[in-house]
Amino acid sequence: MGTFAKLRYLGVKSSTWRLCTRLTTVCAFLYLIGLVTFNGSSDEEESKQNSIRQDLLFRANVDENKVFINRTGEGEEAVERCDEMCKRKRRISFTCQKLRREKVEENTRWQHYLLVDKRHKLVYCMVPKIGSSNWLRTLIAVNKPLPTDPGSISFVEAHFQYQKYLTKFSSIISSEERQYILRNYVKFMFARSPYERILSAYRSIFAYEPSIYDKSAERYRRTLAEMYRGRDFDLPAANISITFEEFLRYLTDPRTAIYDPLSIRPGDYGVGNPHWTSAYELCNPCLLHYDVIGKHETMKADADLILKMAGVSQLVSFPNVTETAYGTTRQYVREAYLNIDPFLLDELNRIYWLDFELFDYGRDIF
After folding, report:
1. 3-class DSSP state for residue 188?
2. Which residues contact 307 (CB under 8 A, 6 or more apart)?
3. pLDDT tens per residue across span 40-56
4. CA neighbours closer than 13 Å in the CB half-sphere of residue 53
5. Phi-psi region of 230 (alpha: psi -120 to 50; beta: other; left: phi over 0)
6. How confident is the model over 191-228, as pLDDT tens digits?
7. Strand (E) or helix (H) holding 187
8. Share of the chain above pLDDT 70, in %
């Protein structure tokens, strides 16, 4: 069901529906005129006019979404969330236009990270270290026969049994069904500062030893020790301590870009571990037009918005986001990167530059 169809289904007055339709038509018409009028202008003028065209194109979306979200009865707060969401989508659209001009290669890896909730018409792009465990818990809880508290679902059930309730997009064979899902379901993803996400991945896998990572952590630690020390990799994994700088050396190592030895699936040539693969590569927001672009720092508010859009906010509540043993405060991030070689920081900026640009994260840690 398209957005306008959702509006009509929710009982929006016909006059409001017609207004939204006209706004969209007018904006599309102005956009086409702009393409002709501004063709051949200087780079500075073209940039300015592109911004104007984007504002026109998204203005209809803003009005349309306000009507849709206000139907949930949330008032001004929901309108503010919608305005922020449209701002995020506008930045992604503008950045993607530049990428197309620069002919940045797109990938098809996103198909393996889209999880489809057919019952509630939701599509979630799962990016590890950005609340993915809580999202799996929430989507499992809302699909169980009886109401379930997401917090009661274990890590193991969330990560190893979610396919009982959710469908991987890559497993859907019918092209017609794929197109229908992408056109009509509510699609969402979450972003996070690459600096925070990398540190969170390091802490959860290398700095701690939760049972779920025991086997992987052993292989990871021995691999990095062999790569950068040439010694002590025959010791028990518990006795091999990998520093944060060694982990960053691994991430920025040219060999890792060719073949990731810490891939979750050993032997898959060139497949990077999703815990530190860029959100752009996992979700490809330039190809898929997500309805909601959530952020780690506004996780709870964005999650509530998504659940309301899906009509399940009365059935389930997203777990409260708190700092845990694996969390990363801003102060901790600054301290962790304080003595890191500037060359490594420059390389991180190069590798994750699309995440910085698309999701509006600053590169200045300090």
Report:
1. strand
2. 138, 313, 316, 317, 318
3. 444 555 454 444 444 44
4. 21
5. left
6. 999 999 999 999 888 876 544 556 677 778 888 888 88
7. strand 186-191
8. 68
Instruction: Tally the residues of the chain.
Output: 366
pLDDT tens-digit profile of 281-300? 999 999 999 999 999 999 99
Q: State the Cα torsion 270-214-210-232 to the nearest 10°.
A: -90
β-strands 186-191, 292-295 pairing: parallel
Which residues fall within 8 angstroms of residue 84, CB to CB, at 6 or more apart? Answer: 298
Question: Tokens at residue 6, please?
Answer: 């959702």
State how far the Cα of 3 lies from the Cα of 64, in Å rounded to an integer. Answer: 8
The DSSP call for residue 207 is I
Residue 49 CB burial class (10 angstroms; 0-12, 13-18, ≥19): middle
**Percent of the chain residues past pLDDT 90, beyond the cut:** 43
Contact 172/115 with Cβ under 8 angstroms? Answer: no
Question: In terms of Cα–Cα distance, which of 136, 57, 47 is closest to 90?
Answer: 57
Which strands, in side-by-side order, build the sheet including 114-117?
Answer: 167-168, 114-117, 122-125, 186-191, 292-295
Contact of 110 with 288, CB cutoff 8 Å: yes
